[in-house]
Design goal:
The chain is an alpha+beta fold and 323 residues long. 32% of the residues lie in helices and 21% in strands. It has helices at 2-12, 45-55, 64-70, 73-82, 100-110, 133-143, 209-222, 260-270, 273-284, 310-314, and strands at 34-35, 60-61, 90-94, 114-117, 127-130, 149-154, 160-167, 170-178, 187-190, 193-196, 198-201, 226-234, 237-244. It starts with a helix and ends in a 9-residue tail after the last helix.
Length: 323
């Protein structure tokens, strides 16, 4: 229904909207803009589509740089750190560094419980809460089968997350994600059943100013595209939990924001969606990377090694014979 609503809004604005699928990827060079509404990841066809659009100067959401950053939690948190965004205390733990002594140090430094995240996680998968050294070691070893690094954070307790949607650095929508009582995540498997958070759209004038400002600042730390920023509040302080490059738009987020799709389409058709993506891509894949207090050093390869994907993208076999 969200896709249909988006199409109807686009047509009411005088545009022609078409749904395309992976088999239609050769159509991208003919488009005026591309709005991706499928799971984004540098290893998915969606990244190929985004990169193609960028190569042809076609405005795209999500842009390749945002996909690269948000698909790798370490990469994402480094951008937040660099921009001094309030977030839970965070450590990046390398496989060979983990032992019982290091686990104890983490609890001493960050408190109990801790939250462990495998860097490529999405939809709350591979995010676990641990309270003992043995639990930490067990979960971390499972995550290390998928990544050389994991994220360790102190646990911020709350019964809901603020979700702030931003586009081009401006507020798009705001809502509360009410966390199910059975879990601490917005989506989880409980006794073999998937439980989801409830979504409560909140008018902008009823959202604390600090929440909106922090959401916009976190989005700007990633880029100028479309983002969903998850924020928790605890003891009067706000913390960015993560920034999503492909946020949900079908859960009722727009209940108090009827112009949501109009803003997205206007940005695609008139905003500076192309030049920023190119500039941001050059910045994220620069030769020096992030250094100093952000911990991994200039020579370190990020968990998803986004730079190595260029050959994969350009070797993708596309038939342009019908152009």
């Amino acid at each position: 229904m969200a896709l249909v609503k988006c199409r109807d809004v686009a047509e009411s604005m005088g545009h022609t909207a078409e749904f395309i699928f992976p088999v239609d990827i050769k159509k991208i060079p003919k488009l005026d803009a591309l709005f991706i509404r499928a799971n984004t990841d540098p290893m998915n066809t969606t990244y190929v589509a985004a990169k193609m659009a960028q190569m042809y100067g076609i405005p795209v959401i999500d842009d390749p740089s945002s996909i690269q950053i948000c698909a790798d939690k370490i990469n994402m948190y480094m951008h937040l750190m660099k921009n001094k965004i309030s977030m839970p205390r965070t450590k990046f733990l390398k496989n060979k560094e983990l032992d019982a002594e290091e686990a104890r140090r983490l609890f001493e430094e960050l408190g109990t419980p801790l939250v462990l995240k495998e860097p490529s996680t999405s939809f709350s998968a591979r995010v676990e809460k641990v309270s003992t050294v043995s639990e930490l070691l067990k979960v971390a070893r499972r995550f290390f089968k998928l990544s050389d690094w994991i994220v360790v954070q102190d646990y911020i307790e709350s019964r809901f997350d603020w979700r702030v949607g931003v586009i081009n650095g401006e507020l798009l929508y705001a809502c509360r994600y009410i966390i199910p009582s059975e879990t601490f995540k917005i989506q989880a498997s409980v006794n073999g059943h998937i439980v989801y958070c409830d979504v409560a759209s909140v008018p902008a004038d009823q959202v604390p100013t600090g929440v909106i400002d922090l959401g916009k600042a976190a989005g700007n730390a990633i880029g100028k595209g479309l983002y969903g920023v998850d924020i928790k509040e605890s003891n009067g302080k706000l913390y960015v939990i993560e920034v999503n490059d492909n946020p949900s738009l079908e859960g009722g987020e727009d209940a108090h924001y009827p112009d949501m799709f109009q803003k997205i389409i206007s940005y695609l058709m008139t905003g500076d969606a192309t030049s920023y993506a190119i500039e941001s891509s050059k910045r994220i894949l620069g030769t020096h990377g992030f250094e100093g207090e952000y911990g991994l050093g200039a020579a370190t390869v990020f968990a998803n090694a986004a730079a190595t994907l260029e050959n994969d993208v350009y070797s993708y076999k596309i038939d342009f014979s019908e152009r």
